[in-house]
Amino acid sequence: MAITTPHQTTPVSPEVHATVVDPFANAAGVTLQEMAATEAAVRTVYEERVVEPLGEVSATLSLTGNHTGSLSLELPRSTAETLARRILAGVHDDVNEELLRDCVGEIANVIAGQTKALCAGTPYHFTFSTPITAAGRQPPRPAPDGTRCIVIVFVCDAGEFAIRLCLDKKDLPAAS
């Protein structure tokens, strides 16, 4: 399954891109290179009003500090399985559900940690919770009240994946 861009989206302003998107995108690139020996490139970035699920496997972390919200790493199952086989030494057959979710949770955790280091000393520094993982397609839902949801879609040789950042509106530069 490929990640498709929903119809109800808006572009992200250059300021939001520079202050929020770039650190998370750079962190994801470093994380996938170090953990799975793959290059991840940003395919598209957009803001959404309705949260459309982007994959069957996800890990979500709460973000607190100077800004509040959440980070969700969302992957099609095939992408998650390919990355898990690369990351989990000795796993060459089907990756069981528990290992798959643990691996996706660890990828999200490392992305958050890398981003935290990149944002240290800026107005966008944060702390984060332990990831909560889920498997299975979720239904679309409205963006949480008072938040703006920014989606970064990546492509790599293992497939596509996305990071969704739902942040308090007051914590982001004004929408363009």
Q: Structural class of the secondary structure composition?
A: alpha+beta
Full CATH superfamily name: CheC-like
CATH class: Alpha Beta
H/E element sequence: EHEEEEHHEEEEE
Kindly provide the radius of gyration, computed on alpha-carbon positions and rounded to a whole number of angstroms.
15 Å
CATH architecture: 3-Layer(aba) Sandwich
- Biggest β-sheet, characterized? 8 strands, antiparallel
Overall shape: it is globular
Low-confidence stretches: none
Strand content: 25-35%
Helix run count:
3
Helix content: 25-40%
Q: What would the keywords be for this entry?
A:
176 residues, alpha+beta, Chemotaxis protein chec, 8-stranded antiparallel sheet, two-stranded antiparallel sheet, 32% helix
Layout of helices and strands, plus pairs?
Elements: E1 9-10, H1 14-36, E2 41-48, E3 50-51, E4 57-65, E5 69-75, H2 77-87, H3 97-119, E6 126-128, E7 132-135, E8 141-142, E9 147-156, E10 159-168
Antiparallel strand pairs: 1-2, 2-9, 3-8, 4-5, 4-6, 4-7, 5-10, 9-10
Helix pairs in contact: 1-3, 2-3
Your description of this structure?
This protein has 176 residues and is of the alpha+beta class. The chain has a single domain, classed as Chemotaxis protein chec (3-Layer(aba) Sandwich). 32% of the residues lie in helices and 32% in strands. The chain contains three helices and ten strands, in the order βαββββααβββββ. Strand 9 (147-156) and strand 10 (159-168) form a beta hairpin.
